[in-house]
Amino acid sequence: MHGLGIYSTRTGHKYKGYFKNNKPDGYGLFSSTDGQSYEGSFKKGELSGKGIMNYSDGRKYKGNFEKNKLEGYGVMTYPSGHIYGEGSRYEGEWKEDKRDGKGRMIYLDDGRELKGWFKDNVFIKKQ
């Protein structure tokens, strides 16, 4: 497949967007049967570039992807009841799906804010 198209799997996953050499490449929309969805850039069948991921557990990420991973700058919003508290948000750098680099975690339930550097999802140093 080449150009604009729609592909659905037997398990109910769906992709609508551009293809190159039978793989998603360019702008597209992906949705899975568990409620997860992605809208953004694809390269050689992988999430790559800017996009928005809505996770089935209520999290939402808007930012950069590389080889299907959160990579570079992005904002993750966490829903109520999540481990990070009532509607918390992280804004900053990501590396291989982990908070890594300069960033800010905002806990909206009590107003706390951690601003500084993160490594492997752990806050390590204040700014």
Description of the molecule:
By secondary structure, the chain is mainly β. 0% of the residues lie in helices and 65% in strands. The protein folds into two domains: 1-49, no CATH class; 57-127, no CATH class. The protein has an eleven-stranded antiparallel sheet with strand order 1-2-3-4-5-6-7-8-9-10-11, with no helix packed on it. Strand 3 and strand 4 form a beta hairpin. It is elongated. It starts with a strand and ends with a strand.
Main beta sheet:
11 strands, antiparallel
Helical element count?
0
**Helix and strand string, N-terminal first?**
EEEEEEEEEEE
* Biggest sheet: strand arrangement: 1-2-3-4-5-6-7-8-9-10-11
Layout of SSEs?
Elements lengths: L2 E6 L5 E7 L2 E9 L5 E7 L2 E9 L5 E7 L2 E9 L11 E7 L2 E9 L6 E7 L2 E5 L1
Short description:
The protein is mainly β. The chain contains no helices and eleven strands.
Features:
11-stranded antiparallel beta sheet; mainly beta; single chain; 127 residues; 2 domains
